[in-house]
Every structure is written in C-alpha cells, then in structure tokens.
Amino acid sequence: MIAEAEHDGTAIPLGLAQLVTPIEPEDRIAWLERTGSAATVAYAEDPLFPLPANREQGDIIERLIGDSGVVVEGPPGTGKTHTIANLVSALLAKGQRVLVTSEKSQALRVLRDKLPDEMKELCVSITDIGRGGSTELNKSVAEIATRKASFNHRASAEVVDGLNDKRNQALSRKAAITEEIRALRERETFKHPFVAQGYSGTAAEIVRDVVACGQRYEWLPAPLQSAAPSLDLPQFRQLLALASQSNPVRARRAHQTFPVIEGRLPQWPDLQRACEAAATIPAPLNPAAAELLQVLDGASPATLAEIGDRCKRLQFAVAAVRELDPAYQGVADGILSGSAAHLWSKTAKIPELLHVAAQADQHVGVRVVETEVDGRRAAVVFHELAVAMENGQEWRGRFRKSDQQKAVEELGPVPTVDGQPATSTENVRYVAEHLRALDCVRSAAAILADLGVSLTTKGSRALQVNNLHRTVSEVQTVNACVAEVRALVERLVAVGQGAPPIRGLAQAQAVAAAADAVADTDRAEQAQTYMRQLSVDIAGAFAGAVSPESQALIEAIDAADVDGISHALTGLEIARRERDEEIQLNTL
Prior knowledge:
The chain is an all-alpha fold. It has 26 helices and five strands. The strands form two sheets. It has a three-stranded antiparallel beta sheet, covered by helices on one side. The chain has a two-stranded antiparallel sheet with strand order 1-2. Helix 16 packs parallel to helix 22 and helix 18 packs antiparallel against helix 22 (461-495). The longest helix has 37 residues, at 153-189. The N and C termini lie far apart (115 Å).
C-alpha cells in the first residue's frame, strides 16, 4: 500500500487517508461516492427490518446518510447483535454486500442465529477452523451453489411483488385504523354549537343537561274569573285576528328573544366580499382532490404556491402520457402501482441501445445491405470477421480460410452491399453495423414486449431505428410523468402524513385537477376563518335566545352563504314581528 501510494495520481482509499488526516463526514461521503460506492442516502430509505425494531435502531441506519460509518456501543444484553442482524437484513434488501468481522468466532455464530432462516444458509462464515468453521464454510458455499442453480427469476419476482403488495396493504390498513381511532376520539370531544337552552357542548354534557331539566317547563294555566268583560270590542277584534293567524310554531315565538345584532355585522358590501372570497375554494371535483386540500389545511402560502405549481406540471405530464398509445398508459399505471416497476427498470437500457443503433445506422449510411441472416449471433460473427480483416486478415477463396470467415459462411449466403458481395473489409464492416443496428432494435422490442408495448421490427433499418428513437421519446414521457407524481407525493408527505396515494394515471389526474383549488386556498381560508369567527360572535349574541332564524343566520355566516345570510336576516325581522304579535295575543 505504501509503495502504491508513493506514485502521483494514485487514488488513496478513504480508510487509509483518514488514518493520517482528519476528514469531515460530508467529505468522507463524497470520497466514497467518487470511488464508485452507492449513495448512503439509499440505505436509510424505508429499511426492511425482519426483527422487532425500536426508534434507536432506525436512527443508526439513518446516521449513514451523513457519514461513512456509525459506532454502536453498549454493555452485554442491550441488543447490539439484534441491531446488527436487522441492519444486515436491511442492507441486503437494498442489494448491498455485507462483511461482518469479529474478534471472536462465537459472536459471528450468535449473529448468524439471529438472522431469518432464509438468510442463514446464504452467509459465508469463515470462523475457527478447529471448531467446525470449515464445515460451516462448506455448508454455506454448497447452499449458495444450490440456490443459484435452482433460482427462477420470474418466480422470485412474483414472490417479491406479492410480498410488496401484502406490505402495502398492511400499511394502508394501519393508516385506515389510525384514522378510525382519531375520528372516534374526535366525536367524543366535539363540542356542538349552541342550538337551544341546555343543548350545547359535548354529547355527554347535553345528555346530563336534558335529564336535569326534564320537569322544569311543566306548567298549567290558572282559572280566570271576572265580573266585567276583560276586553273591549277593538281588543276582541284584535284577539280574533291574532288568533286566526296563530299556530303552534308561532306560539313558541312568545318565549323567544331576538337581540339586536346589526352593529355586530360588517357593512353589507364588506360582508359580500368576504363571502365571495371564502367561496373561491371550489367544491372538490373528486375524493383525491378533496383529500389533497385536507392535507394542505393550515399550510403556509409558500407551500400552497409550490404544491399548486407541482399539480399544474403533473397535469401537463399526465396529458402527455394520455396522448401516447394506450399501452403506455397501462404501463404508467403499472409503474405507479408498483406491479411493473421491475420490468420498467429494464427500459433504462433502451436509450443506450438507440445510441448504438443510431451510430451503426449512420456508419452504413445510404448503402443497401441485403442479407438473409439476422439475429445476435449473426451480428457477433460479422463483427468478429470485420475486426479480423481490419487487423490484416483477407477474404480467401477455397483454401486457408480464417475461422471468422468460416463462421460467416456457415450462416448462409454471403450478404451484399450495394449489390456487391461483402468480401472486402469495408463491406464486411457495413454488414456488421447493419446487423448490430437491427439487433439493438430487437433487444429494445423484447424489453417492451414484456410491458405490452409493441415496437415494430419490420421495414428498413433506418425506419426501425427511427421507430426506436420515437419509442425512447415515449419512454421519457412516461418517466417524466412518474417523476412528477413521486415529487408531488414526496412534497405532500413532508407537509402532512395524510397525503393521498397515487397508484395510477387516473389518481394522478384526479390529484392534479386540484391545482386551481390549491392556488386559491390561502385567500379563501383567510376569508373562511374570518366568517367562522364572525359566526362565533353572532352565536354568542344569541346565547340563551336561539331560534330557527338565528340558527339559520349563524349557519349561513359560518358557510359564507351571502344569499343565506340575506334570507336569514329577513327571517329574523319576520320572527321579531311574530314574537310581538304572539306576546300581544297572550296578553289579550
């Protein structure tokens, strides 16, 4: 190591460098990433712990985001081995390789026993040879070889997808139960607004008040006896008129009071503007949009503006995917739901295939290559012959043929380039590049076929490469939409834990449809807060004197319903007049 480090330009390992010079954590992370290590932030994202875990164990793996190593120490029995087993399992689930060392071989055996049964036999354990270490090593290697020989990629992928679905269902069920518990607790403590005497507060308080006041309002009128008539003729006529229009509903007016509230309300133009501002939040177009607005309840104006912009970008991204072939729309649904994630990850190779195919097609140019052979083997065989001829070999007649030439002739008739047999170095290279371009198109078509997307492999070479170029653009359109969805969900999760899930294009479009509502939410919420406070003030003015008309006014103000407020005020004036008439009727 010393001799190697003495050469200028030699990349020094981090472990050696930090022995002789202090290196800050962020510099250590950057050092590792420059040498090809995976970003440490990927380790801490949603770790899969097979054993019970507490918050402290989660903190350990999260610390890897900001440093190249973590020291965990504690006395025996505090769960260090348990923690290591969880971390080993989580890192293996992320596709990492893990090396565990210990001063004592017994510690490694204890750790191995902690691991799930499916992983124990896959651990290559090199411990004390004299105490069974050789047997353990042989057993581990044999088990790994057996697993590899019997490995079925498709079956394993199906198992992984099934387990992911079960886990997602469990998480969804947990969230639903938590919400049910929250709703139940909220109903227990919810205070009902004042409706009538003895009817306000929590449900338990209302029940106690009703029971306590059950007999308070029982009464009987006393007999009225007088020698002289109680009423003169005009009074009697008034009594008849009032009695003819009275009814049980109007009779209750006599026991109602209607405080003057005009001074408590703002000027009518100001009240109209406040109601219009509060009504700028549209009724939710769909449950997803309503859920999004609920998540953003109480968010800052800057956050609302950011979410609104993201929703608009998502609208354009979804619209772009909607313009593609329906197969891509199905693929987008599969990616967002997680059912096609693995198959879609393979499309990352398609841009590279396009690059190779385009270079090959450009090399051949307008030359016409005619051949009866194609496929991967033909492309490889002609490439090897082209390399050999470029290095000095020649096309032979009957004798002293090279192995590469023999391999080409075994494929079938010799291809032609512009009508000439491909026996020169230049023409052989043209054929090789022609076949390589076609092979790249077929490779991309095979990747897309698993996703249900068709890529034609017919027509001229240039046409096939052009179709592949269009396919790459369509793949990028889907990727852009998925990226917008994930960026929006990530931001919503940061705002509140109740972010709506997006499992398909329809859900993405539903959430994105709330963009305009999000943009108006801040102004509308301020107006609604003002109207709710005004409603509380008016309810306080009617405390102890609630009537249907006053309750209608309170509800209309709370709902920022300007027409309802106008009707309720008119109703209050009518109710006051009816109260005065019923009081006069009782007096007469």
